[in-house]
Amino acid sequence: MNSAEQTDVLVVGSGFGGAIAAYHLAAGGASVTVLERGPWLTAEDAEHDYKLGSSYTRGFDFTVGDGMSILGGNCVGGGSVVYFASMPRAPRFVFERRGSIGRRMWPAAVSRDTLEPWYDRVAEALPVTPQDWHDVTYAGGLWAAACDHAGRTANPLPVAIDTAACVNCNWMMAGCRFDAKRSLLLNYLPAAVAHGAVIRPLHEVQAISRTDGGGYRIRYHVIDDEDYRITTGSGAIDAKIVVLAAGAGATPVILQRSEAGLGPMPHAVGRYFSGNGERLNTAVVNEDRVAEVLGLSRGEGAPAYGANPIGRGPTVASWDRLDGSLPEYSRYSLEQLYFPPGLGTILAQAPDAGDGPTWFGRDKKRMLSRWNSWLTIFTMSEDDNEGVFGPPPATGNAMRISQQMLGRGNLRYEPTANTRHGWAASDAEVKDILERDGIARVRPWTNDVVGAYTVHPLASCRMGDDPATSALDDRNELRGHPGIFVTDGSAVPGALTVNPAMTIAAVAERAVPGIVRAARERGVAVRYGAPAPDGSTSGRRGVLPLIRT
């Protein structure tokens, strides 16, 4: 192909990293094109079923690797459309972590203090609001009561949810039919479009190469709307600036495949992947003991709990172990979580299976019959960044296995003793809390089927000060490739011990002034300083003193 379309800025992906960059650059006057490999789903498309072809399968990408599987968003708005909207800020100690490299992973320029104004920008834009105990679901209330009974503390989570509009249908992972969840479809993305940004769904970026004029050519395939294995077209777009935000499971693959056209990649591209130290335990609750020990009741003859599917995703977390004075790899959060039928019913192990099979068989069948009495607890801990991406597939980020959702990727993950220590410690604490006085029986999900698993992939093209262990500098620019920036979860250096969406978004907000500066140096007439998508300006005032000129 000798000719291509032209745009000032090409953004790959429309999740937090892509949507935030697209909005600010379009609002600043640049021509912006966003390529998103998934479909454009609206509230009307959010279906309350798990059938093939529903929003539940259309909006997800589940990639099975060697020792680690990744579940992520695959639609306009990315993970924000299918996430549970929990938006805590990362603990202060996270930014001082040394991890497997024996030195501070985060750039010296980034700390909790320096990131705080960017967190504020995100909180204003979505917005993010605290919950109180009146907002907590049955499952969250049970977890809080069990923590209190065991001498632990628990806290309602801050969320990007309009709780007044939420109907507690608990279908958040299929998209929100009621627009109560403040996904990027309600703020950054429509604001970007209003300023002229063009969003193209079902466009999967394959590779990037250099142009004779010093810019970049981005090659893409057009994906069939129903069968993601089918390509219906292809094309190329030339841009002066490229913002990669395809997710930590796809961004490194695009860069690996682009090496032939761009030249050598930094060593850290596709290395140091983190699954955010994630782990899941499922408890089968004893309804009688919940009533007797915890004093909980739903009234009217209903079981004391028996409400696993009622409400919404996580509403309560225990943060007792988020203590910076504790040794690294022993800090984690424990979050109540509703995981809908699918992986949850497959990977949950029967607590009383004894020496027999634990995730299938008669004991598992009996466990499934009591699914209304399940309580799932989600651990986010400190891992060792041990994931490595192998050679990229011929196209896309994975070899597509099924019509939608399922693929086989090139990630290899062998958990170290440090990572396993964090998992074991959190498993033991969940067991201590929930099995105390016979409240429940609990067991972690199996790793035998798809290895470990994460819904929050991070760090596969991470930022840092050391060129040997980071792919990006402290402005999110790809080392050795000026004008290419990475703003998704792959830029975050390591596990955060909490839900990462808020931090990914804050890091993306922080990167935008540097992207604007690079665009101006390449002749793009763009400025920085747009308000929040709804016109609010308090967050803008907070960050202006931090912007390098």
Which short descriptors sum up this protein?
about 550 residues; 7-stranded mixed sheet; alpha/beta; 14 helices; 19 strands; steroid Delta-isomerase activity; 6-stranded mixed sheet; single chain; FAD/NAD(P)-binding domain
Topology:
Blueprint: E1 5-12, H1 16-27, E2 32-35, H2 55-58, E3 60-66, E4 68-73, H3 79-82, H4 112-125, H5 138-149, E5 155-156, H6 188-194, E6 198-200, E7 203-210, E8 216-223, E9 231-244, H7 251-257, H8 259-262, E10 278-285, H9 287-294, E11 316-318, E12 333-337, H10 343-347, H11 362-368, E13 374-380, E14 387-389, E15 399-400, E16 406-413, H12 417-435, E17 440-444, E18 452-454, E19 484-486, H13 501-521, H14 538-543
Parallel strand pairs: 1-2, 1-9, 2-6, 3-16, 4-18, 9-19
Antiparallel strand pairs: 3-4, 5-11, 7-8, 8-9, 10-13, 10-17, 11-12, 12-13, 14-16, 15-16
Helix pairs in contact: 1-6, 1-13, 4-13
Domain FAD dependent oxidoreductase: 8-41
Pathway: Steroid metabolism; cholesterol degradation
InterPro entries: Cholesterol_Oxidase (IPR052542), FAD-dep_OxRdtase (IPR006076), FAD/NAD-bd_sf (IPR036188), GMC_OxRdtase_N (IPR000172), GMC_OxRtase_C (IPR007867)
